Amino acid sequence: MAxxxxxxxxxxxxxxxxxPRPPARPAPGEIRHPLESRTRWxxxxxxxxxxxxxxxxxxxxxxxLIAFGSIASGxxxxxxxxxxxxxxxxRRVARRPAIPRKLFGGILxxxxxxxxxxxxxxEAGAGVIGVAGAMxxxxxxxxxxxxxxxxxxxxxxxxxxxxxxxxEGEAHLKAMQDAILRTGDRRLEARVGMFAAAARELFGHVExxxxxxxxxxxxxxxxxxxxxxxxxxxxxxxxxxxxPRARQDYETLLNDLEGEFAARRARLLEGGRTDxxxxxxxxxxxxxxxxVRPSPAASEPAELQRxxxxxxxxxxxxxxxxxx
Length: 324
Prior knowledge:
Radius of gyration: 30 Å
Number of domains: 2
Strand content: under 5%
Oligomer: single chain
Distance between the termini: 81 Å
Helix content: 55-70%
CATH architecture of the largest domain: Up-down Bundle
Structural class: mainly alpha
Largest sheet: none
């Protein structure tokens, strides 16, 4: 995904290295959990079950294949659970995963180890190995998120509706990025990536504040669908003609839409600030009617005293000397 870069020689540089814009919202599939690579290593370590299966009798062949398949399936479930956890952690408002994938992954991994280590007459040992494997899986990958995050006071129906509309918007952005690849122009691909980043900032606002979905539905569905259709037609035309006027018109369209998205998000943030000020003023009026007023001492900052040194302990101050 294209990212904005700034520096000394960039337009409108920030000499102090700060940027007031929030970090770009990652696209679906770009969020990675730091423990995902462990699942591949565990799957690789289970390959001896697959190789040794062909030197066994029919019963041993079936057991070793089932053991490898169970471990591989458990690691696949664990990787899906890690991705769901990464998406959960990246959002301020999120529901817990509907399926505890890491839990099922640990069960499948322990079952695969128990089946792979099974020997007739040593069923208890195989069971101990399976339980130990499941416990090690839990220690290595942790547990699934079991609680909703930031859902207090949020309507679940509106949250689900917001998730559906955001998914539709992501589909439109993916279609735009796929269509612009036909032009073979890296600058156009980067420009569409910047537009997608601006749209995803609005997606993040919708996910955090699903109550604003009615005001943003036109931007997330109608405008993005129109931008997708325009991108498809432009890509087909520009790939054949390389018309500079068509390119200029298309880039102007993206600039207008990106500016409209940024302005709309700023208006929503300003509206949220206004609502907060109204709530604070109403609460203060209620407290005043109840006779609760802040004390003058509480509103004034605490008086700072000079720290005491060793000389103060040895030589008393004038105020500490006893009066005669």
